[in-house]
UniProtKB/TrEMBL annotation, chain A:
<comment type="similarity">
    <text>Belongs to the binding-protein-dependent transport system permease family. LivHM subfamily.</text>
</comment>
<feature type="transmembrane region" description="Helical">
    <location>
        <begin position="42"/>
        <end position="58"/>
    </location>
</feature>
<feature type="transmembrane region" description="Helical">
    <location>
        <begin position="212"/>
        <end position="230"/>
    </location>
</feature>
<keyword id="KW-1133">Transmembrane helix</keyword>
<keyword id="KW-0812">Transmembrane</keyword>
<feature type="transmembrane region" description="Helical">
    <location>
        <begin position="237"/>
        <end position="258"/>
    </location>
</feature>
<dbReference type="GO" id="GO:0022857">
    <property type="term" value="F:transmembrane transporter activity"/>
</dbReference>
<dbReference type="GO" id="GO:0006865">
    <property type="term" value="P:amino acid transport"/>
</dbReference>
<keyword id="KW-0029">Amino-acid transport</keyword>
Automatic annotation (TrEMBL), chain B:
<feature type="transmembrane region" description="Helical">
    <location>
        <begin position="82"/>
        <end position="101"/>
    </location>
</feature>
<feature type="transmembrane region" description="Helical">
    <location>
        <begin position="283"/>
        <end position="301"/>
    </location>
</feature>
<feature type="transmembrane region" description="Helical">
    <location>
        <begin position="9"/>
        <end position="26"/>
    </location>
</feature>
<keyword id="KW-0812">Transmembrane</keyword>
<protein>
    <submittedName>
        <fullName>Branched-chain amino acid ABC transporter permease</fullName>
    </submittedName>
</protein>
<keyword id="KW-0472">Membrane</keyword>
<feature type="transmembrane region" description="Helical">
    <location>
        <begin position="159"/>
        <end position="178"/>
    </location>
</feature>
<feature type="transmembrane region" description="Helical">
    <location>
        <begin position="113"/>
        <end position="131"/>
    </location>
</feature>
<dbReference type="GO" id="GO:0005886">
    <property type="term" value="C:plasma membrane"/>
</dbReference>
């Protein structure tokens, strides 16, 4: 039983990070129909900037704040300099633009920082907490708590504020949103900035556990994309559920079946799910008009 | 003008002429190597373009088939005692069979869902190659036996230049002609509108599957060629980044343009060679070039250039 809880906690911890990356994909996709493959680079930036600013002597909370601000700036630049000028391009073209951006960001991080792995200190010590016989890192609670706070804040923002409703309206129908006076360009910039902030926070929270380096973004983007698809693209709750599910699948698959094929379980399950439910677990059925 | 001297023949003759003349300009064997790399990648990109450009289906895991071809010529001779050319054929058959098997359920999906499904397939192939190290050498890769036919061994950059160049010309010829067959027209019909194609009596599922299998075989043969040319192979060739590289070649050159795929491959293979001068900035510049060219040449290099030329000629 202790083993079960051990896998459960590690699965949920990693899954929470996938969930945040998936949430970033969803936010940008809803506002602009763009699949942003540079989403993983925001996570990398969150971790790397915090590490290097903290190493320069800035206290950790302030360093983390600077990292989030830096990631948001990069997200906005990505939108203004690369996505906005390519308005009206096909989906594949836009995907390649964001992949180009991710190559660029990785290259820049390699020059600006270095090629080493880096670690942050755990926020509240390294003494493991005993939970039903499983030894759980305190940092796991930070990751899970942080994810819960972000999800709740995002929910409150979308449902309770005027600006949030503008985002939802833009997601539902961009033309109609523009007709009722919503500045859809602002909404899209907001989505890019917001997804960058969420990604960066995920990066800061997870770095004490998984380390970070300039190239951690690619795999995270793949897993986040997979999680978003598993939940049903464009559905924020689906993204969170998909992320957590993906983390659990990996942890239990690695623990009980084979650790070398850890990454395979996620993709096998996604293929099976897509065969049975081509719109993902929580995706809506869409009727195609001719 | 005789009927056979159409647009396609001109394209083919120009390509063959370039392959023949280019070596005259090469100052060293290094250039033969880079050019061979271009021909091999162009061959894979042309195949992928049949799927993406003609039939309108995305594959983000295409390097998986490239990897199957590459590891077939590595594992066949090393572990099973097969001759290289036999292993190459077996690799192509395995690629075709797996594309056929997984294609049916996968190609029912559309858009981003098709993208993630094909991406998943690619990741799985790469994972198996990386993990089964007893057969594949794991992450370190493995040596590949040289190609030998009737006692003659293919080695050296210039030999491979001629082999890959000839194969590219044949592959281009097939792809150009395919576009004009009923199959090619069916591909284009389902690209434009699947529903309209179905109404017109086209078996959409069958043609999608055909395009997928053809693209897989192209990739597999390219993978085999690269492996034998390098005499070495590692899992990166089957990985996600290589899949993306292939897609970028197709889109950068121009979706649906066979010549575009060759140009796209040439740009993407030679750029990093040129950029090594800037070593540290290689990735930054590569990313920048991809972004800028996709913003300003949305249709890809070749269609944009020919549109520009047509405008100039008319003016």
């Amino acid at each position: 039983m202790a083993e079960f809880f051990q896998f459960l906690m590690s699965g949920l911890t990693v899954g929470a990070v996938y969930a945040l990356v998936a949430l970033g994909f969803t936010l940008v996709y809803n506002a602009s129909d763009v699949i942003n493959f540079a989403q993983g680079e925001f996570v990398m930036l969150g971790g790397m900037v915090t590490v290097f600013v903290a190493a320069a002597g800035v206290p950790l909370p302030l360093a983390a704040l600077i990292a989030v601000v830096a990631a948001v700036a990069v997200g906005l630049l990505l939108y203004w300099l690369a996505i906005e000028p390519a308005r009206g391009a096909s989906a594949v073209t836009l995907i390649i633009i964001t992949i180009g951006a991710s190559i660029l960001l990785r290259g820049a991080a390699q020059i600006l920082f270095d090629k080493q792995f880096h670690k942050l200190p755990s926020f509240s010590g390294d003494a493991p907490v005993n939970l039903f016989g499983a030894a759980v890192q305190p940092q796991s609670f930070w990751v899970l708590g942080g994810t819960a706070v972000i999800v709740l804040l995002l929910y409150a923002f979308l449902e309770r504020t005027l600006l949030g409703k503008a985002v939802l309206a833009t997601a539902a129908n961009r033309l109609a949103a523009r007709l009722v006076g919503i500045n859809t360009a602002t909404v899209m910039a907001l989505a890019f900035g917001g997804s960058a902030a969420i990604g960066a926070i995920a990066g800061i929270l997870i770095t004490p556990i998984t380390l970070t380096s300039y190239d951690v973004g690619t795999l995270l983007a793949l897993k986040g994309f997979a999680a978003a698809m598993l939940g049903g693209m464009g559905n924020p709750l689906g993204a969170v559920a998909g992320g957590l599910l993906l983390g659990l699948l990996e942890a239990f698959g690695a623990g009980y079946i084979s650790s070398t094929y850890k990454d395979a379980f996620a993709f096998i399950v996604i293929l099976v799910v897509l065969f049975a439910m081509p719109r993902g677990l929580f995706g809506r059925r869409v009727v195609e008009r001719v | 003008m005789p009927a056979w001297f159409g647009h396609r023949s001109v394209t083919l003759i120009v390509l063959a002429a370039i392959v023949v003349v280019l070596p005259l300009l090469f100052p060293s064997s290094y250039y033969f190597r880079v050019a061979s790399l271009v021909w091999v990648s162009a061959f894979a990109a042309i195949g992928l373009n049949i799927l993406m450009g003609q039939a309108g289906q995305v594959s983000l895991g295409h390097a998986g088939f490239f990897g199957i071809g590459a590891y077939a010529v590595a594992i066949g001779p090393a572990h099973l005692g097969l001759p290289s050319w036999g292993a190459l054929l077996i690799g192509a058959v395995i690629s075709a069979a797996s594309a056929w098997l997984v294609g049916r359920p996968v190609l029912r999906l559309k858009g981003h869902y098709l993208a993630i499904a094909t991406l998943g397939l690619g990741v799985l192939v790469a994972l198996v190659i990386t993990t089964e190290s007893r057969w594949t050498g794991g992450p370190d890769g493995m040596a590949v036996a040289k190609l030998s036919l009737f006692g003659w061994r293919a080695s050296g950059s210039s030999t491979w230049y001629w082999i890959s160049g000839s194969v590219l010309v044949v592959g281009t010829w097939i792809a150009l002609n395919l576009g004009e067959t009923p199959t090619g027209r069916a591909f284009r019909a389902l690209h434009d509108s699947e529903i309209a194609a179905r109404v017109a009596g086209i078996d959409v599922a069958r043609f999608k599957l055909q395009a997928f299998v053809i693209a897989a075989v192209y990739a597999s043969l390219a993978g085999s060629m690269l492996a034998m040319m390098n005499g070495f192979i590692n899992p990166d060739q089957a990985g996600f980044l290589h899949s993306i590289e292939l897609v970028t070649m197709v889109v950068l050159g121009g979706l649906g343009s066979v010549v575009g795929s060759i140009v796209g491959a040439a740009v993407l293979i030679t750029l990093p060679q040129v950029l090594t001068v800037f070593q540290e900035y290689e990735h930054v510049l590569l990313g920048l070039i991809i972004i800028v060219s996709m913003i300003f040449m949305r249709d890809g290099i070749v269609p944009t250039a020919s549109k520009w030329l047509a405008r100039r000629v008319r003016a």
